[in-house]
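DM between two lab members

TW: hey, do you still have the Sodium symporter small subunit domain-containing protein entry open?
JB: yeah, one sec
JB: this one, 84 aa:
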Amino acid sequence: MSDKPNDYWSANIRVITICLVIWAVVSYGFGILLRPILSGIPIGGTDLGFWFAQQGSIIVFIALIFYYAVYMNRLDREHGVDEQ
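TW: and the structure you got?
JB:
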């Protein structure tokens, strides 16, 4: 176990905050707020803004889930709280 138990939780909260900010920027920023700017860029038969709103935010969310799982497994091992 780590010398400072709060280090584990602060690292956990930090990665959760970063993941949520990335997801919000992709979902709301690219899919809603920046959609008019991205509408001129074609991708997959539609414009990039629509793609981010319909597909991109979901793909980024799934990638963030995998990143979080890998990161937390590493953090658990570093702090001696892993399941193995």
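TW: got it. Helices lie at 5-33, 35-38, 48-79. The chain has one domain: 5-79.
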